[in-house]
Amino acid sequence: MTDAATMTVVPAANHTEFTTTAIAGNRTFDVTVTKSEEGDTMRVVFFSDGSARTITLGAGQINSAATIVTVADTKAIVDYVFSGVLWNETSRSISAL
Asked: How many domains does the chain have?
């Protein structure tokens, strides 16, 4: 997934994984659910660059805490499962690179 002010993904398989390049600013993350089916899983990995970053989760498709905050030179891994309506967060971790 390429770094951009707003990053939008379209999960399209039973399990989809998205990994960012190093994010260079605060970002918004959105999910489009047109190809999602109940029980699908998704993992998103955000890599921060040399600064702390805040990723705001888009409204409407993700049932999760509103933001993900990383510190410099870390990665955040967030797992979701699709309920048929929303992507629900099942786990989150932040660790050093």
From this structure: 1
